[in-house]
Amino acid sequence: MDLRTPAIVCAARPHGETGVILRLLSEDHGLVASYVAGGRGRNLRPVLLPGNLVEAELRVRPGSQLPSARVELVASRGPWLTEPLPAAAITWATTLTASALPERQPFPALHQALTALLDAVCHAPSARGWLPGMTAFEALLLRELGYGAVERSADPDWNAQLAAFDKLGPLVARYPLADRRSDVMAARAMLRERLGRIE
């Protein structure tokens, strides 16, 4: 597999002394894991932040099943990762994506929805502007993975939006995250706790 594609960074895990195992979501190729040599260095570390948009070049290394990747930053979410609520939203959305989606199966609707959600989190004046998008993204993920359609609230009231978000949590935990619930759902719990501070 040799390809060049725009992608969203969903997860970056240290590997070895300086490398990183990177999970990227591409519109045409789905979720792809790859190895980035030197990914923990000061030049690449800010590029590999969850939520960042990158241009990735993936190549299969001889004798390895994991492609190697070179990435260039297209758009950074770094400034929003210093703010508690946007950081929690970006972390939850990318962690859910990296944990729930199967490898190398394209989900173009989810890629487009995640792109729009990340843009909303970064540019809406408050969580009231992006929470409906987060709920829509979770519902779309459930539907795309075959767990059926979920009714969503069209009520713009903040409490109704929080109730809709709360209603989806058990479904996400039970279905796509059934075997990884504790680790991944902690990111959602942190987001919900921060949303609860908004009046």
UniProtKB/TrEMBL annotation:
GO CC entries: bacterial nucleoid
Pfam families cross-referenced by the UniProt entry: RecO_C, RecO_N
DNA replication/recombination mediator RecO N-terminal domain span: 1-76
Isomerase recorded as keyword: no
Keyword annotations from UniProtKB, A to Z: DNA damage, DNA recombination, DNA repair
Positions of transmembrane segments: none
InterPro entries on file: DNA_rep/recomb_RecO_N, NA-bd_OB-fold, RecO
Highest taxon listed in the record's lineage: Bacteria
An example Gene Ontology biological process: DNA recombination
Name used for this protein in its record: DNA recombination protein RecO
Species classification: Bacteria, Pseudomonadati, Pseudomonadota, Alphaproteobacteria, Sphingomonadales
